[in-house]
Amino acid sequence: MATYRLCYKKGKVGYSKNHAAYIQREDGYQSKEEDLVYTESGNMNFNGETISAKKFWEYADTYERTNSVAYRELELTIPNEFNHEQAKELISNFVKKK
Fold it and tell me: Residue ranges of the MobA/MobL protein domain (predicted)?
């Protein structure tokens, strides 16, 4: 039976760069037990210039107010019945919805 889960979280200033690295499995967060299938970043701008996701989150930690929310995230579990391409398409359609 397919199960689902959707979770909304907010992140504090000072944690966004490391959290992004954890999600992307970068900077020491690579793990042989977990399998990152796909990752994508987009619309990362700073002063009108497109920058890398890593730099974007570094700037969020540096320039956001201390007591503000630096990032918001949605965690969505996808049923095992979906293959990787179906899961990617599902998430892409979900993100594009307004």
Answer: 21-97
Which residues, in sequence order, are CB contacts of 52 under 8 Å at separation 6+?
A: 41, 44
Give the span between the Cα atoms of 95 and 98, in whole angstroms.
8
- C-alpha count within 13 angstroms, C-beta hemisphere, residue 34: 10
pTM of this structure: 0.75
- DSSP collapsed to 3 states, the chain: CCCCEEEEEEEECCCHHHHHHHHHCCCCCCCCCCCCCCCCCCCCEECCEECCHHHHHHHHHHHCCCCCEEEEEEEEECCCCCCHHHHHHHHHHHHHCC
Which is nearest to 37 in space by CA: 97, 86, 93? Answer: 86
Give the model confidence (pLDDT) of 18-29 as tens digits.
Answer: 999 988 888 888
Give the mean pLDDT of the chain.
86
